[in-house]
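[step 3/7] fold_predict: job queued, chain A
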Amino acid sequence: MTKQQHPDSPSPAGSGQPPGPVSPPAPARIEATESSGWKMTIILALGVLVVGAAVWFARGRAAGAEKKGPGARSMELPPVPVIAGTVAQKDVPIYLTGIGNVQAFNTVTVRALVDGQIDKIAFTEGQDVHEGDLLAQIDPDPFHAILAQAVAKKGQDEALIANARVDLKRYADMLANEGVTQQQYDTQKALVDQLIATVNSDQATIDSAKVMLAYTTINSPIDGRIGLRLVDKGNIVRASDLTGIVVITQLKPISVVFLLPEQALGPIQQQCQGTDPSLAVLAFSQGDTNVVGEGKLAVIDNQIDPSTRQFKLKATFPNTDLRLWPGQFVNARLLLTVQKGAIVVPKVVIQRGPEGDFAFVIKDDQTVEVRPVKVATTLAVQVDQGDAIIEAGLQPGERVVVEGQFKLQQGSRVRLADAGGKPEGRGPKPEGKAKAEGRTPKAKS
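[step 4/7] structure written:
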């Protein structure tokens, strides 16, 4: 049986018949064309879907950005707990503050004015004394002897002058009768004048001896408080000693000397020309927490230190309660003036950024606004109770953030809390049911 050949296969060699025209069958071509068309349709459909999805996503992001605005990111976060304050308008005292040193109103080192042995110490350490009170007694016996010697010398010279005056009267009578010469009379008269001068010298010696005797009794020259005793009874003291016997300081009243920068001189002089030239001065402890004295400005120094560009001022304090002590360092506040109707906020409200000072203002919708402000900076002044005077940017009655600024930005939503950290409007929790603050109770399943 002869094998049947496929029409597409070439004729076998050696058949002797020429090959006929070869063409592919028609049904196979039609199937290939249809398969390629469906593939292109699917690819185009997928491309359209991808482009549509990308356009829809981009439009959704743009619409969300337009709806939320620049501060929209903070709206997605939970409210920030802050402590709020209110912008106030009131009369504010303006102080100039400087570091001061307390000085005794008077300080006296009691020294001996004569040489001698101390017989008596009449004071106790830390005692309050008054002017004229006895402090110490130096042995007066040597000075009594000196005084007695001076008195005796004067008596001797007075006897001589009495005799010389009698001779002078006799010479005057004899001169009239030419019993003595004029030279003899003049010599006698000169002797009388010499003895008068000697008697006057004796009197001066007596007065000096009385003064030296008085110096043996040492009295307090001022009212004040006794310090530590520097010499004990029985010691020899001399007028040349530098240590002295004791130091007395006057504590009531007392002085405070403090420094201010040269820029403050003009405003102070202007205020001193008013009806009350004595400006009030407050003395605060080093921690700036307690007022230890209230006084008046006494004097402004007559020169400015060129090295520090500061000048000294002295204030006088009554110091009736003895809270000021010599050598103590205090913060002195000079009341320069009282600014009427000033707009003030606590100093902690003022924040500082690259563009200057600003504050976070709480709006009615419980979001914050970054508000530029202008703080009064004419002088390095201190406002009472730590307030800052606002020249522009805030209005009385507005609410501002006092604490919690570090988590805020423009448009941040806030939750108001009191100074203790509790949200406003929440009452005290029932006793026995207190929960940890900020935790939400779990729902029962």
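[step 5/7] annotate
The first strand starts at residue 80 and ends at 86.
Residues 114-136+217-244 form one domain.
exit 0
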